[in-house]
Amino acid sequence: MAPKTAWTKSSYSDSNGGACIEVADLGEKVGVTDSKLDDGPAFLVPASAWATFVAFVE
Description:
The protein has one helix spanning about 45-55; strands at about 5-10, 20-25, 30-35, 40-45. By secondary structure, the protein is of the alpha+beta class.
């Protein structure tokens, strides 16, 4: 998947580190994972689909 340093935690994460997702920009794909799970599972989506999702929820 992506190295640990590539993951960015959601700005909506609570202060104790729970209940959040992390994303990794992998070029043409974006990785999405639950931050409570150190080594996955994660899923990949096309970068264009992620951009559409983010635009919708903003």
